[in-house]
Design goal:
Largest sheet: 7 strands, antiparallel
Number of domains: 2
CATH class of the largest domain: Alpha Beta
Order of helices and strands: EHEEEEEEEEEEEHHEEEEEEHH
Radius of gyration: 22 Å
Number of strands: 18
CATH architecture of the largest domain: Alpha-Beta Complex
Shape: globular
Number of helices: 5
Strand order of the largest sheet: 12-18-17-16-15-14-13
CATH topology of the largest domain: Naphthalene 1,2-dioxygenase Alpha Subunit, Chain A, domain 1
Mean pLDDT: 95
CATH superfamily of the largest domain: Naphthalene 1,2-dioxygenase Alpha Subunit, Chain A, domain 1
Bound molecules: FE2/S2 (inorganic) cluster, fe (ii) ion
Distance between the termini: 18 Å
Helix content: 10-25%
Strand content: 25-35%
Low-confidence stretches: none
Length: 339
C-alpha cells in the first residue's frame, strides 16, 4: 500500500474548477468532495457514514452538503448538523475533513490534521496567478503512473529533445547547456543554462530565430511534487531580468498509487488579450503533455511490471539528479512522519 505524505500542501483543484457546486476528486487515495462555503473552501471525505453514498452527488446548502441518499447534512468540518428524520444526531455521524486555502488561483489542501495546517508552507505560485500584466492559460491531465514518475519527467527536462519533437524540442540547444541541481532547505532546484544559442522556438517569437540568445529553464520543486518552471531568454550576454520570461506551474498530486493529477499553467506578458495565442498554447500544451509526456511516462512505469523503482537499479546519467533528489527528499519526509 502506498503511503502518502501528510504534512504537505496538495493542490486539489484550480479555483475555477470549483464554481458553486460540489467537486468530487480522488486525492492520495481518498475520495474527497470539495465545495465553497462563506469562509473559504471545505474538503470532506466523499462517503456518507450512513449507507456510503458519495456526498459529491448531493446538493450544497448554506450549512454544508446534503447527502443525496437520505438527506443527512454535513458542515464544512464534517460534522452532521441535520438529520431529516429526527432531532437526534448520532455521535458517529461525521466524516473526515481537511483544511483548504485558496491562493494564486489554486485550491491547496493540507494532507494532515486541520490543527497542524501551516499556510506559510504553501509554495509560492504568485507568478502564475492572474494579474493586470499577465495572461494565464491553465490545464489539466491525468497521468497513468505514480506521481514520482511525473517528478522524474519534470525535474529532468533533457527529455524535451526526444519526447517533444512535435512541440517544445529546441534544435538540440539543451545538449550544449549546463545543468545544476541544488538544495535550498525543503526546496529543490533543477536548472538548465544555455548561453549563446539561437532563440528558442514558440514562447519567444519576440526574438527572431537567428538571434543569439541566452536561454534558461529553471525548475523549482517542493514536496510532494509542486513545481514551478521559469523559461527565459535574453539577448546573449544581456541581463536576464530584461529578457522574455514565461512562468509555468507543473503541479502533481497523487490521485491513487498509479494515477496522478497533473495541473499545468503557463503565463505570458505579451498578446495579453489574444484568444488566438491562448488557443495556440492550449493546443501546444495538450500535444506536449497528453500526447507526448503521458504515454512515455505510462509506458516506462508499466515496463517495471510492478518491480520497485530502486530495486530495479535505475541507471544514473547526472541529468536525472533532480528527480532522484526529489524522490530521496520525499522518502526522508515519510520516514520522519512515520517516526
Ligand atoms: S447514505 Fe447518506 S444519509 Fe443515507
Ligand atoms: Fe515533457
Amino acid at each position: 500500500m502506498t503511503t502518502y505524505l501528510k504534512d504537505v500542501w496538495y493542490m486539489a483543484a484550480w479555483c475555477e474548477e470549483l464554481g458553486d457546486g460540489l467537486l468530487g476528486r480522488r486525492l492520495f487515495d481518498r475520495a474527497i468532495v470539495l465545495f465553497r462555503t462563506a469562509d473559504g473552501v471545505a474538503a470532506l471525505a466523499d462517503r456518507c457514514p450512513h449507507r456510503f453514498a458519495p456526498l459529491s452527488l448531493g446538493t450544497k446548502a448554506d450549512e454544508g452538503v446534503i447527502c443525496p441518499y437520505h438527506g443527512l447534512t454535513f458542515d464544512a468540518a464534517g460534522q452532521c448538523v441535520r438529520n431529516p428524520f429526527s432531532g437526534k444526531i448520532p455521535p458517529a455521524a461525521r466524516v473526515d475533513s481537511w483544511a483548504c486555502i485558496e491562493r494564486d488561483g489554486i485550491v491547496w489542501l493540507w494532507g494532515g490534521s486541520r490543527e497542524t495546517a501551516d499556510a506559510s508552507l504553501i509554495p509560492d505560485f504568485s507568478v502564475v496567478a492572474d494579474g493586470p500584466n499577465v495572461r494565464v492559460v491553465r490545464g489539466y491531465t491525468l497521468l497513468e503512473a505514480p506521481y514520482e514518475f511525473g517528478t522524474d519527467n519534470l525535474m529532468d527536462l533533457s527529455h524535451i529533445e526526444f519526447v517533444h519533437k512535435g512541440s517544445f524540442a529546441g534544435n538540440g540547444v539543451i545538449f550544449a547547456g549546463r545543468h545544476a541541481v541544488r538544495d535550498e532547505g525543503t526546496t529543490l532546484h533543477s536548472d538548465w543554462w544555455m548561453p549563446g544559442v539561437k532563440a528558442p522556438p514558440h514562447t519567444f517569437g519576440i526574438y527572431p530565430p537567428e538571434m543569439d540568445c541566452d536561454h534558461w529553464l529553471d525548475m523549482r520543486w517542493n514536496a510532494p511534487a509542486s513545481m514551478h518552471l521559469e523559461i527565459g531568454a535574453c539577448p546573449a550576454g544581456a541581463l536576464r531580468d530584461g529578457g522574455v520570461i514565461a512562468h509555468q506551474a507543473h503541479i502533481l498530486t497523487p490521485a491513487s498509487a498509479t494515477t496522478t493529477h497533473y495541473f499545468w499553467a503557463t503565463t505570458r506578458g505579451h498578446d495579453l488579450e489574444s484568444v488566438e495565442t491562448d488557443a495556440f498554447l492550449r493546443q501546444l500544451f495538450a500535444q506536449a503533455f497528453d500526447e507526448e509526456d503521458k504515454p512515455i511516462i505510462k509506458a516506462a512505469y508499466e515496463n517495471l511490471e510492478g518491480e520497485d523503482f530502486w530495486a530495479a537499479k535505475p541507471l544514473s546519467l547526472g541529468i536525472d539528479a533532480g528527480g532522484t533528489r526529489a524522490r530521496r527528499k520525499v522518502e526522508a519526509m515519510l520516514r520522519a512522519e512515520a517516526a
